[in-house]
Amino acid sequence: MNEVSEKVLISQLVDNAEGAFECFVQQYQHLVFNTSLNFLAIKEDAEEITQDVFVEVYKSIGSFKGESTLKTWVYRIAITKCLEFLRKAKRKKRFAFMVSIGNIGENSDEPKTLDHPGVLAENHERTEILYQQINRLPDNQRIAFTLYNMDGISYKEISQTMDLSVSSVESMIFRAKKNLRKKLFNYYKKT
Q: Cα–chain-centroid distance for residue 119?
C-alpha cells in the first residue's frame, strides 16, 4: 500500500466512511491472522485474536497518530493482543494446577494442542516442541524471532513495530536463536 492510499484509508476510517473498514479488513486480515497463528499456533485462538485486533482498530483508529505506518500500528496491536492472550492462558493454567493440587474441583479443560495448518503430520511433534520453546523465550526475543522467522518481516519493520533500534532487534533475534538451540539441544539430549 503506498503512502497516499494509506493516508486516504486512514482518513476514511476516522470519518467512518462507508466501506472503509471492510476495505481495511480485506487488506489486513491475512497479516493479522498469520501473525496471531504464528504466536499462538492454534487456529481458533488466532481467529479470536484476529477479531479482537479489528475491534481494537475500529475503536481506536481516531487515536492513530501516524508516527508509524498503519501496518506497523496493526502489528503492534496484534502482538499486544497475542501476548495478553498468552499471559491469560498461563494464569488459567496456573489456577487450574492449584485447583487440582488442592482437590478443590475437577479441571475439565483439555490442554490445547498445536493446530497450525502449515505443519505436516510427521513434523507435528517436533513443531509442537519448537512452539513450546519459542513461547518460553522472553517476550522481546519471542516477538522479534517470530516476526522475522515466521512472518518474514525485515529488521527495519520489526524495529519500527517494537520501537527499538535495528541493532537491538538483530541482537534479540541472535539471542533468541542461541536460547532456542540450547533449549532444543537439552530437550533432545534428554530423550
A: 17
